[in-house]
Amino acid sequence: MKDEATVSSLPLRYRLEIAGIALDVHADASLDLQRFDGRAQRYARKAAASPPDHVLQLDQLSEQGFWPPNEIAAARLVDDIAGRVCIEAFQCRLCLGEPGRTDAWIGGANGFENVLRLLISRLVLQRGGAVLHAAALRCGDVGVVFPGVSGAGKSTLTLRQQQLHQVSEDMTAIRPVGDGWILEALPFLAAHALDVGPRSARVVGFAFPRKAPEFALRALAPREMRARIGRSLVVFASARGLEPLVLERTLQLSRDIPGWELELDRTTPFWPELLDRMHPSAVDARSTADL
Amino acid sequence: MELIQRNRRTAWRRVEDEVVIVSSETNALTILNETAGRVWELLGEPRTYEELATALSLEFDVEVGQARRDVADLVADLRLSKLIDSTEAK
Questions:
Q1: ipTM of the assembly?
Q2: By the CB < 8 Å criterion, does B27 face chain A?
Q3: CA-to-CA dists, residue A82 to A17, A92, A96, A139, A239, angstroms
Q4: How far apart are CA A63 and CA A121, in angstroms?
Q5: For residue B23, which residues of chain A lie inside 8 Å, CB to CB?
Q6: A223–B16 C-beta distance less than 8 A
Q7: Hey, is B87 helix, strand or coil?
Q8: Beta pairing class for A200-211 and A180-185
Q9: Chain B residue numbers touching A240 (CB-CB < 8 A)
Q10: What are B9-51's pLDDT values in tens digits?
Q11: B15-25 per-position pLDDT tens digit
Q12: Of the partner residues B9, B15, B20, the one whose CB lies closest to the CB of residue A240
């Protein structure tokens, strides 16, 4: 049985405004505060103590940066949960967009992370970026995004070339900076973000991995890219009202970032050739010998 | 008479000779070829099967009978993908 001090009841009804989005949501269960660090726990208790129908203005949190520190992100999402999500033993029902409508049902041990993922993917999309179901590797400041469904080979990429830095293994955010894009891990998703130094890099391309008997690398035409990028965006489950943004980002990414199909065999080192093809001037990153 | 129109929970754009559609109803992205994309464009307002078939027949120079079959197949696919809604004409 859980210590009562670590379990906080959430208000039954809540209204939340975040980044200009007002949401009415029901929160009808308990939140296990052991899931959070100390600062997030304080936020959670504060959220739990707020009266029903209280309106939280969270814009000030988003003003602290595109990627807030861990605890702020957690706190924000705790507030999000208070305002937007029903939690029943971490069976999370998202209520985004229209009050009273269920957009997604997420359960299992990773339910909380899934909620964060979907909420953040929505916010990232609104701020010009995207969250992709993708692994990401970097070498120096050069990074490659590896979108793919489970089983495509994302997780085994680093087993092949452990000198490379894995920025994330399952969820990657990318956003425009200057005239290019950078990739980043989602820092609060412990299961998906690895603590391996810098968590960002300049994106030089997408590589869509596929297990195959022989190594091959094939450039993808824009129309092939559109379909693949569209399938990789992690926002659909909370995309109500954001359909035009999803479409715009899909087209933008498929147009702006080159993509390759990467057929992975069991032995061929893929990184040098990948970099040669994607970004020939990235001499420093082409060799991993000095890492 | 059945009228067909786009599901409002979609966003779309013509890109080159394709139409790319995002649906938050099904959490999916759909890409239509030129002919299907033209039908999709016509569905900006409620249409009957016959209106769609006639338009396809004229614009793509196919027999009306073939156009009717193509429209029926396409509408079935679009309905399965929850990209369209139907109403009965008053």
A1: 0.78
A2: yes
A3: 11, 12, 12, 39, 20
A4: 17
A5: 243
A6: yes
A7: strand
A8: antiparallel
A9: 9, 24
A10: 889 999 888 999 988 777 788 999 999 999 999 999 999 999 9
A11: 888 999 988 77
A12: B9
